[in-house]
């Protein structure tokens, strides 16, 4: 069936009955092989209809266009091999949870062993004497050639051999073959039904293919050139729509008037500080002063490495608010961080007569009621807390400034929820210790102005960082003992929570038990991870902060955590599993006291690019350089996460490689909005609808 034919009827394999003609809102559950359980799993990926699947772009591709003989198959890359199954597959049960299926395959050039781990269904699927196309990496030489976990299809029933095969993002219960099979039917029958939402003039000016062509060749490319054309169209449209949406956010923000705070001199505030601020801190305060006295509502992001002094800048903003008779609220992502900010700000601002209060979920009912009354009466000038600040019971007498710390832990919605506690539009200050390249920051935080604190206070000793292999483990344990003997504390980070979650990776629960029972029975070892109840997590972190724990074994849950100046060593197991930016955040947990601190990366991964990446990290302490390198090597995933910024996750664009298209799309968006600011022209209305869909969770921001 040729790609591009529209709404052809399909036959169900099970009954032979004709299914109704497909349209974009045809449910995927109406397809053969998609029962209620599969439909539920597909829905987790946001796939419920034909239209959903047509715009669910693959994350990668496998070139299955060439078929090799076993003896000639290259080792460096996965390839297709046509071979006969020479014997009935055999299954060996190694231990609970592990079985291995093996069979011998042959062709005219030689033989190989096909090996499958935990896929005992293969014993029934592969039949001796029949020919199959196997796709996988052929390893070894001569008579010892082997394919491990290859995918396969019978030679007389091929669907995916001889083409460039899409590889989709998956979830439990959904295989790539299932998605590819569904996509093949949907693309063949309905690609032409997708609306072309880009204005014709924009498409022509930027030489972009039609949506039908893009859909066909993103799912099943004719060749690499067709894929490049299709991808360019999808990337441009995504970044164009996002740029238009951000422009709406900015214009909406520019129209908001803000409370005018008094124009007091920065030098007056600096007398409160027990240290000399850096030039970058002073510049940040001057920018805040300009915002807060302008009559326009401030929406500013302060970015700075761990220890660069963002809290002092936030304190300056709260000091200005108090001078104007306004209250401030500061929201932190964890109770322990909220406690830390409370202690720091109370001590710093008390001489200025500013009353600081703490509101967290763990307060008693009586303490909460007292805090509610103090805020409503105006007795408390600055409230520091967690999500408890969003509680319906919390009211303020005159809230003028909202501060959120570690913004990437909060969505736009939570920021708005806190702002809605004010009678009039409050000023908003966002702080983040996650270094993000400026290109990306402007996109992620498009509704915010960006200030970067790019200096660390003088006299801060850089953390010494080392990369070691498994053969140095005993020496590393000796170094842990040495640090503890000197009165210091140690973090050990693992990438998994429990054994079996991720193969051979170190897991927190089992590793903590091994350390406490066998390696350090005389030391105080504790563990913490994200699956613990909040109360239990807070208790362990507080004990570590009080010095009651020598070695804390943890997942990255400590990435944004308490300030423990006594912690001097950070050990990161399976370091290759983390992005550079995440490693940098983890390293920032140490080096906060007056002692020399260390970070030890443990990895036996020998891949050249992995070694280069980890060595770069060992040689660099500048968070923004590390962020740029991470963006270059890994793309924006580390920065975006799962909608962590409250803005849309990009499906097609890769901001590391698509900066040229981004600039082109931004220019096109600016030109269109200059000509039609409300996107009211009939040809431009689909763009507005697409913006609304892209920002679905914040849909009302454009009303």
Describe this structure in words.
This protein is α/β, with parallel strands linked by helices and 703 residues long. Among the domains are: 1-56 and 167-193, no CATH class; 66-162, OB fold (Dihydrolipoamide Acetyltransferase, E2P); 266-294 and 309-432, Rossmann fold (3-Layer(aba) Sandwich), CATH 3.40.50.300; 464-620, Rossmann fold (3-Layer(aba) Sandwich). Helix content is 36%, strand content 17%. It contains 23 helices and 24 strands. Strands 2, 3, 4, 5, 6, 7, 8, 9 and 10 form a 9-stranded mixed beta sheet that branches. A hairpin with a 2-residue loop joins strand 5 (98-107) and strand 6 (110-117). The chain is globular and about 90 Å long.
In CATH, the architecture of the domain at 464-620 is: 3-Layer(aba) Sandwich
N/C terminus separation = 45 Å
- Number of helical segments? 23
Number of strands: 24
Portion in helices = 25-40%
Shape from CA axes? globular
CATH class of the domain at 464-620: Alpha Beta
The averaged pLDDT comes out at 84
Q: Which class of secondary structure composition applies to the elements?
A: alpha/beta
Low-confidence stretches: 1-19, 637-646, 697-703
CATH-wise, what's the superfamily of the domain at 464-620?
Answer: P-loop containing nucleotide triphosphate hydrolases
- The percentage of residues in β strands lies in 15-25%
Q: Largest sheet, if any?
A: 9 strands, mixed
| Radius of gyration from CA coordinates | 29 Å
At CATH level 3, the topology of the domain at 464-620 is Rossmann fold
């Amino acid at each position: 069936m040729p790609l591009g034919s529209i709404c052809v009827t399909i036959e169900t394999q099970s009954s032979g009955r004709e299914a109704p003609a497909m349209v974009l809102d045809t449910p995927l559950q109406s397809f053969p092989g998609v029962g209620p359980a599969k439909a539920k799993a597909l829905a987790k990926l946001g796939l419920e209809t034909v239209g959903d699947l047509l715009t669910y772009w693959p994350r990668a591709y496998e070139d299955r266009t060439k078929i090799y003989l076993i003896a000639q198959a290259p080792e460096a890359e996965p390839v297709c091999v046509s071979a006969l199954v020479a014997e009935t597959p055999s299954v060996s049960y190694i231990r609970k949870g592990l079985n291995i299926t093996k069979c011998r395959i042959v062709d005219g050039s030689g033989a190989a062993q096909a090996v499958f781990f935990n896929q005992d269904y293969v014993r029934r699927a592969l039949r001796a004497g029949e020919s199959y196309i196997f796709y996988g990496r052929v390893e070894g030489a001569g008579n010892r050639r082997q394919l491990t976990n290859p995918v396969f299809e019978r030679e007389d029933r091929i669907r995916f051999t001889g083409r460039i095969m899409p590889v989709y993002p998956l979830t439990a219960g959904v295989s790539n073959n299932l998605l590819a099979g569904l996509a093949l039917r949907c693309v063949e029958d309905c690609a032409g039904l997708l609306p072309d939402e880009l204005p014709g003039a924009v498409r022509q000016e930027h030489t972009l293919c039609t949506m039908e062509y893009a859909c066909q060749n993103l799912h099943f490319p004719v060749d690499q050139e067709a894929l490049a054309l299709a991808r360019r169209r999808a990337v441009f449209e995504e970044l164009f729509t996002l740029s238009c949406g951000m422009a709406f956010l900015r214009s909406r923000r520019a129209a908001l008037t803000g409370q005018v705070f008094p124009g007091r001199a920065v030098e007056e505030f600096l007398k409160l500080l027990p240290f000399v601020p850096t030039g970058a801190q002073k510049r940040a305060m001057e920018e805040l002063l300009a915002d807060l006295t302008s009559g326009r509502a401030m929406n500013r992001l302060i970015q700075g490495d761990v220890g660069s002094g963002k809290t002092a800048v936030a304190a300056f903003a709260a000091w200005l608010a108090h001078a104007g008779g306004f209250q401030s609220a500061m929201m932190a992502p964890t109770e322990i961080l909220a406690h830390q900010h409370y202690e720091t700000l109370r001590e710093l601002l008390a001489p200025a007569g500013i009353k600081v209060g703490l509101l967290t979920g763990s307060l008693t009912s009586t303490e909460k009621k007292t805090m509610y009354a103090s805020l409503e009466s105006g007795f408390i000038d600055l409230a520091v807390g967690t999500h408890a600040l969003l509680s319906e019971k919390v009211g303020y007498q005159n809230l003028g400034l909202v501060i959120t710390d570690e913004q990437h832990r909060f969505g736009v919605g939570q920021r708005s929820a806190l702002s809605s506690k004010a009678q009039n539009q409050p000023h908003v200050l966002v702080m983040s210790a996650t270094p993000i390249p400026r290109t990306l920051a402007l996109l992620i935080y498009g509704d915010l102005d960006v200030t970067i604190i790019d200096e660390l206070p003088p006299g801060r000793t850089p953390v010494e960082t080392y990369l070691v292999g498994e053969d140095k483990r005993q020496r590393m344990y000796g170094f842990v003992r040495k640090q503890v003997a000197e009165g210091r504390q140690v973090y050990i980070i693992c990438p998994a929570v429990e054994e079996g979650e991720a193969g051979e990776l170190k897991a927190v629960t089992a590793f903590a038990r091994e350390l406490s029972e066998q390696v350090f029975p005389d030391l105080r070892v504790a563990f913490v991870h994200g699956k613990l109840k909040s109360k239990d997590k807070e208790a362990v972190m507080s004990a570590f902060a009080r010095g009651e724990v020598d070695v804390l074994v943890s997942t990255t849950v400590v990435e944004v955590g308490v300030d423990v100046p006594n912690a001097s060593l950070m050990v990161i197991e399976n370091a290759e599993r983390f992005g550079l930016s995440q490693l940098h955040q983890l390293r920032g947990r140490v080096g906060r006291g007056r002692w020399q601190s260390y970070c030890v990366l443990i990895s036996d991964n020998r891949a050249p690019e992995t070694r280069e990446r980890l060595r770069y990290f060992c040689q660099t302490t500048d968070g923004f350089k590390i962020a740029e390198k991470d963006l270059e090597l890994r793309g924006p995933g580390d920065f975006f996460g799962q909608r962590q910024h409250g803005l849309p996750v990009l499906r097609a664009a890769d901001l590391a490689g698509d900066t040229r298209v981004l600039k082109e799309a931004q220019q096109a968006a600016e030109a269109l909005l200059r000509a039609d600011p409300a996107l009211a022209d009939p040809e431009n209305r689909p763009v507005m609808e697409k913006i609304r869909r892209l920002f679905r969770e914040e849909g009302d921001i454009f009303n």
